[in-house]
Amino acid sequence: MTKTSRLPPVATLGPLIALLLAVIFFATQSGRFLSVQNFSLILQQVMVVGLIAIGQTLIILTAGIDLACGAVMALGGIVMTKLAVNSGMNAYLAIVCGLLVTMAFGLVNGLLVTRIKLPPFIVTLGTLNIAYAITQLYSGAQTITGLPPAMTFFGNTFRLGHAEVNYGAVLMLVLYLFMWWGLRETQPGRHVYAVGNNPEATRLTGIATDRVLLGVYVTAGLFYGIASLVSVARTGVGDPNAGQSENLDAITAVVLGGTSLFGGRGMIVGSLLGAVIVGVFRNGLTLMGVASVYQVLITGILVILAVTTDQLSRKGAR
Amino acid sequence: MKLKHTTVFAALLAGAGLAFAADAPVIGLITKTDTNPYFVTMKKGAEAQAAKLGAKLLTAAGRIDGDNAGQVTAIENMVAAGAKTILITPSDAKAIVPSIQKAQAQGVMFIALDSPTDPVSAANALFATNNYTAGELIGQYAKAAMAGKPVKIAMLDLFPGNPVGAQRHNGFMKGFGMAAADAKSNELSTNPAIVCSADSYGDQAKGQTGMENCLQKDPGINLVYTINEPAAAGAYQALKAAGKEKGVLIVSIDGGCKGVENVKAGVIAATSQQYPLKMAAMGVEAGVTYAKTGKKVQGYTDTGVTLITDKPLAGVSSRDTKYGSDMCWGNK
To answer: Which domain holds residue B84?
Structure first.
């Protein structure tokens, strides 16, 4: 059994350096940028993408990709809110139903990838459309309001010194820590890396690669469901048009975080940094009074840089 | 809401290229999307009017706002299905023009609903809200409400370069008594009183993010202009989280049922209501007239806008939320 691959320093440090440079730049541009309150704000603005990115990282580590993550998250949110508000279901039960729906999508993706050997890109392109359509049909394209308090808990904040800290952001950080530990220290976690590195060799060592992949897709679905709950809590509504930019935003966060699209190499914490980098640019540019479209431009440039770094370091590793 | 079987059936027929019997005029309605309650309402209005006047209605939409290719496909399919009038809310005002001209050459009349083509004359007629006026109304209301107090404004706009976004933004400034570009400009005017701007894309989550960042930039903001009511709901969420929901005035535009509810609840101080049902009904009527008499409609018809608020102010004419919810669009 191979150990978790040690990353070349540049891939690990890349996102951290980019983040530090951005922070230093905005700190010189706006007196309101460098504060605990503002950083807490940025975390709360990236928590939905950050949670989706956990699931997306797992899939990308196995050399797959999930184009449907945002659409599945939107469906989970609509299922939860509609059951609780329109069908009068107990809020906690409704949340569980939402999580079950997003995990069911993960199961379908996983079965199609492992049993019929379809490429993840195509499978999730299909489920992207299916999830989107079900969301629209089930909600009648209507936003759902009047949510029970249990569903908006993660949108609430508590005071920490001078800052308002969001429960959802804390949940995201805790889950990142947990997954970071899980991927490094547990056997299933190491199997994820192994399958991503070399599925054939892993199979020959007697590990049930299909079961690992299936587990990865279902776990990703669970994280999309948690993201549904946090997204619903943040906006206070069930929004059928949620998640459309998150599909690609989550992949962006993973790539910026230095996880290789070729599988088997990367760090879950990198994805958090990737999501935060995008949030820092959006927040900083607004504070500077610069149009947010520049954030999109900068994000694009950073993605190319990150992938280039990954490619060069792979060459160097051979 | 259940799927409209008639619509699906009509679309299937259209796809098969079958023309309907000549005695029932065929009218097409192409909206930007079929997921926005505004366009869903428009579709309902058109369906009701078509049923009343004995016309066949075909409907189609782009996949997302800005999906021009989807609208081009819809025009082709509707012309094939024998539509003589097509009502369209252009997703891309410039890009749709060649497709419109091609169909017009085959005798199809085009009426732009809700927003104009570019040039406006590319469609035979335009039935729409005057977005600049809609902005002016909430600008005048905000001016009266602030009653000469020093003002710090946050603008939650749509996205750069969009004419509707610019007209509402500049109209609001004009109504507030600030110098601003006229209705022809797609540029957002600025003023020292506007301490922060953010693009909301008309989306609640993005509106909330924009407002959070604006409050971080200047906690003293006391007036918020929002492009539409979802963005306003997002702004309110951000203000509430900061404990500032009491002292800040939010004004908005649209008059959707959820928005009017928010005016009633005190979340939004005032909103400019527009009437998509009316646009669609007038469009269908014009289509039936054209089919029966060969007479085309022309020029711009303003379908009207009303300021809805429960706190009327001297010098600004408005109606209350009861009227607003009677006339609102979307699900009540």
So the answer is: 9-128+276-297
